[in-house]
Specification:
The structure holds two protein chains of two kinds.
Chain A lengths: L8 E2 L2 E2 L1 H11 L1 H39 L3 E5 L3 H10 L15 H5 L4 E12 L10 E6 L11 E4 L10 E4 L10 E4 L2 E9 L5 H4 L1 E5 H14 L13 E6 L5 H11 L3 E5 H44 L1 H9 L4 H42 L8 H32 L2 H6 L10
Parallel strand pairs in A: 5-10, 7-9
Antiparallel strand pairs in A: 1-2, 3-11, 3-12, 4-5, 4-11, 6-9, 7-10, 8-9
Chain B lengths: L3 E14 L2 E14 L3 E6 L5 H8 L7 E6 L2 E2 L5 H11 E4 L11 H11 L8 H11 L15 H12 L6 E5 L7 H18 L2 E5 L3 H4 L4 E6 L2 E4 L3
Parallel strand pairs in B: 3-8, 3-9, 6-7, 7-8
Antiparallel strand pairs in B: 1-2, 1-4, 4-5, 9-10
Helix pairs in contact in B: 3-4, 3-5, 4-5, 5-6
Classes of the chains: A alpha+beta, B alpha/beta.
């Protein structure tokens, strides 16, 4: 006859697992306290790790989505360029273009696969748009490799976008076929971009350079606000390297040839930006590590008190024939079950919270936050589970070892002299 | 009388208390025959419980040997000593000593966890039969906190006998019981001793209970000798 009952009896025998579960149930206050401590620790660790992994992933995705390896901008505008490309803030700046900084020359550099200019302007809030200030980006359809890969839908089959036609980011409410009036000039929306989670692309209006230059010229007559951009000026030159091209070396060459330009290597920029965004998370991680250490001590103390309070009970069990190993296993199994259950709950709640709060966090940290893929989340959860389990078991190890090695006589007497014995 | 079951030679146990050495038992030489009923009496602090613990494998002596069936029980490992306790010894403690988180039935089944098969192939049936024998079958599924003192003591007694021990050690088993309950417990212990041929060592303050033993010993300041008639 084999049966499992609520009494922890299997096949007519009590089981160690059954006894451990009953002990946990029998000491509900202690069990609940330890559960809560481990729950908070696991949940916090998992949430912080998940956010950090998400942040790193987002930064890498941003780099990939931008498609450029080098961004050449005016030396004085590095900070604003960073804001535009990585954070997605609307902004505008210019530098002399083709005449003094020919893209063809840059294309001839070793390892350069493509180079394309862009010109930025900022529009006042538009009724069409979900964002306050809208970024207008003039791009060269002939050489562009940043905007066009993201075009989801496009009207017509023209090989080249006309100057009065615009592509819009995913956040722009107006759809394909709609019209936009920018600085007095009207544009037909001919395409919409896929969502990239990169605000620079999602909230921008992309118009051929020729169209933007016409808009600039006409703004003097038609618009309330005049755009002060020279006929040859551009805002940046985006460069894509070949597989074997050396972006750092090319950036140095450009800066050497054009001292008033700054060639930003995107991978470095992203890393720097990521590091600055990661600082608050790292700060939290340090505080959390201290909290974890304090909690380990607390868990150890609770276990020590708890086991001391059960000395007579453990002595009886040993008097009935339990080995040192059995007593040790029983105490550690209780700790493992408690921390395991707390860890699973903490991870579950942490995952739920991060998902629910992801939208708010995106706004708060001002970056397109992309949480990691399922396999990475699973790996993270497994790591947190193992760490939490160890953190629940290790602090109880000393008390468990001490009690298991104590002779039953001393345990039954409630004697705290440990092994006592021979004087 | 049969051959010696237990032989203690030169037993001494000393404790350190506040840096001072206190000798609890000293120069104990003792032989107890198989199936013998021996009572040990003496004042508090005379070393009765310490002696019982040393004989039962609960406390390693400072010096001396304890031979049970000719084997030195302290000449083995800690696990070997645990096996000795599980398979050969039944303890009845001064207090009821039940595990509070386990039901009465679980408490009775504990010895079968440490010595599987020792008390029979069907420990649950055996446990229920033991409970019936002490008149507490209906309490099988309750927790110790729901038992009276006498009931808890009877459960503890039933548990001590679960593995059919060859050595029964009882330390003041009726100390906190009324007269009727005391008689019930003693009758049960004596019946087990008689029916199973178990060696029975009873530690007691009570001259009446001590007088029920086949041999009466008395401890004075850690040393043992025959009790005066």
């Amino acid at each position: 006859m084999s049966r499992q009952t609520d009494t922890g009896i299997v096949g007519g025998h009590v089981t160690s697992l059954g006894i451990a579960i009953k002990n946990l149930r029998g000491n509900m206050l202690r069990s609940l306290s330890l559960f809560l401590v481990m729950f908070v620790l696991s949940g916090t660790l998992f949430s912080i790790s998940l956010l950090y992994a998400g942040l790193m992933r987002s930064i890498e995705l941003s780099r990939q989505r931008l498609g450029a390896d080098i961004m050449v901008v005016p030396s004085a505008q590095v900070a604003q360029a960073r804001e535009i490309f990585l954070v997605g803030s609307a902004g505008s700046f210019t530098m002399p273009g083709a005449a003094s900084f020919p893209a063809d020359v840059v294309r001839s550099y070793e390892g350069v696969a493509a180079a394309t200019p862009q010109l930025f302007a900022v529009s006042a809030p538009l009724p069409c748009c979900s964002v306050a200030d809208t970024m207008i980006v003039g791009f060269d359809p002939e050489t562009d490799f940043v905007i066009t890969p993201w075009v989801r839908e496009r009207v017509g089959t023209r090989g080249r976008q006309a100057p009065d036609e615009a592509l819009v980011g995913a956040d722009i409410l107006a759809g394909v076929g709609g019209r936009l009036k920018l600085f007095g000039r009207e544009f037909l929306i001919v395409g919409k971009l896929d969502r990239t989670d990169l605000r620079y692309l999602d909230s921008g209006i992309f118009i051929p350079l020729e169209g933007v230059r016409s808009m600039v010229r006409e703004s003097k007559q038609k618009a309330l606000k005049t755009l002060a951009i020279g006929p040859d000026e551009i805002s940046c030159l985006l460069i894509r390297m070949t597989e074997t091209g050396n972006a750092e070396r090319t950036a140095l060459l450009i800066e050497h040839a054009y001292p008033d330009r700054k060639a930003l290597v995107v991978s470095q920029l992203v890393r720097t930006n990521g590091a600055s965004l990661a600082v608050p998370l790292k700060g939290m991680a340090v505080l959390f590590a201290l909290q974890w250490a304090a909690s380990l001590f607390l868990i150890g103390v609770v276990h020590a008190f708890s086991i001391d309070g059960r000395r007579i009970e453990l002595g009886i069990v040993k008097a009935l024939g339990a080995t040192d190993g059995y007593v040790r296993s029983l105490l550690l199994a209780e700790a493992a079950m408690l921390s395991g259950a707390a860890s699973v709950t903490g991870i579950g709640v942490g995952l739920l919270l991060v998902h629910v709060l992801a939208g708010h966090l995106r706004q708060a940290i001002d970056i397109p936050l992309q949480l990691p893929e399922v396999p990475e989340v699973a790996l993270l959860a497994a790591a947190v589970f193992v760490l939490s389990l160890a953190s629940g078991i290790l602090p109880s190890l000393y008390s468990a070892l001490r009690s298991s090695r104590t002779e039953p006589f001393y345990l039954i007497k409630g004697d705290t002299r440990g092994k006592g014995g021979r004087p | 009388m049969t051959a010696d079951h237990i032989i203690a030679r030169g037993l001494r146990k000393a404790f350190l208390s506040g840096g001072e050495e206190i000798t609890a038992i000293d120069r104990i030489d003792l032989a107890i025959g198989r199936g013998e009923f021996v009572s040990v009496s003496g004042h508090s602090g005379s070393g009765k419980t310490t002696l019982l613990s040393v004989l039962g494998g609960l406390l390693r002596p400072t010096s001396g040997t304890v031979l049970v069936n000719g084997e030195d029980i302290y000449g083995t490992s800690a696990d070997g000593l645990a096996r000795y306790r599980a398979r050969k010894v039944g303890f009845v403690f001064q207090s009821a000593s039940l595990l509070p988180a386990l039901t009465v039935l679980d408490n009775l089944l504990l010895p079968s966890l440490f010595a599987p098969g020792q008390g029979g192939d069907r420990p649950e049936e055996c446990a229920r039969a033991s409970l019936a024998a002490v008149g507490l079958l209906e309490k099988a599924d309750v927790f110790p906190s729901q038992l009276s003192g006498g009931e808890a003591k009877r459960v503890s007694l039933a548990r001590a006998l679960m593995n059919d021990p060859e050595l029964l050690l009882a330390d003041e088993p009726t100390g906190d019981l009324d007269e009727a309950a005391e008689e019930q417990v003693m009758a049960y212990l004596e019946r087990f001793h008689r029916d199973r041929g178990a060696t029975f060592i009873l530690v007691t303050h009570s001259p009446e209970l001590a007088a029920r033993a086949g041999r009466r010993l008395r401890m004075i300041r850690g040393m043992i000798g025959p009790a005066a008639e």
